[in-house]
Amino acid sequence: MSTEAAKTEVGSYFISNYPPFSQWSGDALAHIQNAMANPPRKQLQRDGTSLETPLGLYLHIPFCRKRCKFCYFKVFTQMNAEEIERYVSALTREIELVSQQPVMGGRPIRFVYFGGGTPSFLSVKQLQSLFQRLHQSITWEQAEEVTFECEPGTLSESKVIALRELGVTRLSLGVENFSDAILEENGRAHLSKEIHKAWDWIVDADFPNVNIDLISGMVGENWDNWRENVRRTLELSPESVTIYQMELPFNTVYSKDLLQTQQAAPVADWQTKRDWVRYAFEEFQDTGYKVSSAYTVVKDPSKVSFSYRDNLWRGSDLIATGIASFGHLSGVHYQNVPEWNQYLEALLDEDRLPIGRAFVPTADQSLIREMILQLKRGYLETEYFQTKFETDIADRWKDVWAGYVRDGFAEMKVDSNGHCNRIELSMDGLLRVDALLPSFFEPQFRGVRYT
User: Fold this and answer.
1) For 297, which of 39, 70, 284, 374 could close a Cys bridge (C-beta 3.0–4.6 Å)?
2) Using CA atoms, how far apart are residues 411 and 416, in angstroms rounded to an integer?
3) CA angle 437-443-244, nearest 5°?
4) Any residues with CB less than 8 A from the CB of 291 and at least 6 apart, and which?
5) What does the DSSP 8-state code read for residue 294?
6) How far is Cα 220 from Cα 223, in angstroms, rounded to an integer?
7) Longest dimension (CA), the chain
8) How far apart, in whole angstroms, are the C-alpha atoms of residue 356 and residue 74?
């Protein structure tokens, strides 16, 4: 059933939304403007009642010391203090404008995510100023989770302490690999000694929730190196570990070089990457960690939740702030403008929100979006989709599921009446979940460029 290529090819991608981003356009801007100008839509619950839709906040901090060769996010290097201050001023003005929109509906912010780029690139003084200005417009005192992405080499003891005092509850540390040679080859700015310095400061600050990111399949990686990565991560014993399989979207340094030279990608093939993730999952499980998704293991599920992930995968609203950031409000997807001058001028000169494009999914597309994203957890509860979308997902896609069952990727669980109430992926299915998802795409979105 899967059409996945054996090799890691240019154009491979991680599925994070539906329909594909390439289908969004400026023609739909009126829809997101209308959504913002009206009270928020309610969200249907399992018992048939409707409750307010959870609201989250994403803030994009696009600065980095270096651009990683595999990075496909909007980032800027070599920005000076004056340029950073202009960006922070624009970002805080954006938050102020958003906070005045009727779509907020007086809702508390349930989760906050500072992503990048490298949010920890900001100095302590810049961070304190940013948070102070943000809190003049919004508060996240009731948030279940405030996540802050960090690059080890940008941390200091004072910065870690400041983040704790500013109310960050979860750090996500971009380790990726412990080999200096591999870090350098892949364009990472930090080296292994900076990982351990940062970790000591994090432990001393008593952060309640710390995640370590690893990447399976970085250029130069091999089995010996991968085993060492797992061993050293286990020694640090973080609350969670997220492992991504290396991809090559079109706009990375590696991809552009490969397209120009027409050479084969120097990245491990998909089966090798899956084997490495499987090995890591097994090693972590042997020490008590639990598999939480296709990418994540957690030490104690009763203490560690993923509010940002789980709410988004269930259709929550997300305010997108910062250059090129993606959001979703009252059933409308949207993205901010992607260019530096566009973003700053919209906010600082024209005093308007910097939205660049949008997309209004149909009810069926919203169903597909939630289903494929929730499948990344490794299971689907069919009752959830029957209640929210009035659709029996087991029956509607029975041919797809039958193929995945036959291939050993999925299992259909049935109740006492013989009705499928749960769909579970095997480990083989979970490790290749992004390759399984396009089978659920509508025909017009199969084979199109994703971003």
Assistant:
1) 284
2) 16
3) 25
4) 281, 285, 297, 378, 430
5) S
6) 10
7) 66
8) 14
Are 298 and 281 in contact by the 8 Å Cβ rule? The answer is no
pLDDT surpasses 70 at 4: no
Predicted confidence (pLDDT) per residue in 188-225, tens digit: 889 999 999 999 999 999 999 999 999 999 999 999 99
Q: Taking a C-beta distance cutoff of 8 angstroms, is the pair 80, 204 a contact? A: no
Domains in the chain: boundaries: 21-313, 363-445
DSSP string, 200-213: HHHHHTT-SEEEEE
pLDDT-based confidence at residue 280 (cuts at 50, 70, 90)? very high
Other residues' Cβ atoms within 10 Å of the Cβ of residue 129: 16
Write the CA distances from 305 to 288, 311, 348, 433, integer angstroms.
16, 11, 37, 21
Contact present, 445 and 20 (Cβ < 8 Å): yes
- Domain 21-313's class? alpha beta
Strands in 379-381's sheet, in edge-to-edge order, are 379-381, 420-425, 410-414
Average pLDDT, stretch 1-10?
Answer: 60
Report the alpha-carbon distance of residue 117 to residue 114 in Å, rounded.
Answer: 9
Sequence letter at residue 11 = G
Say which CATH class 363-445 falls into. Answer: mainly alpha
What is the rounded CA–CA span in Å between residue 129 and residue 134?
9
Q: Pick from 338, 356, 326, 329: which is nearest to 34 by CA?
A: 329
From first CA to last CA, the distance across the chain in angstroms is 24
Backbone angles phi, psi at 358, to 5 degrees: -155, 175
pLDDT confidence band for 246 (50 / 70 / 90): confident
- Coil/strand/helix, residue 176: strand
- CA dist., res. 244 & res. 174, Å (int): 11
118 contact partners, CB below 8 Å, separation of at least 6: 61, 63, 64, 65, 75, 149, 150, 151, 154, 174
> What pTM did the predictor assign?
0.94
Compute the CA torsion angle 300, 309, 199, 66 (nearest 10 deg). 160
**What is the CA 78 to chain-centroid distance, rounded?**
25
Q: How many beta carbons lie within 10 A of that of residue 142, not counting itself? A: 9
- Per-residue DSSP letter, 244: E
CA distance 173 to 124: 17
Instruction: With beta carbons less than 8 A apart as the criterion, state whether 19 and 74 touch.
Output: no
Phi, psi of 265 (to 5 degrees): -65, 130
CB of 380 closer than 8 Å to CB of 423 = yes
145 has pLDDT over 90: yes
The pLDDT of residue 447 is 82
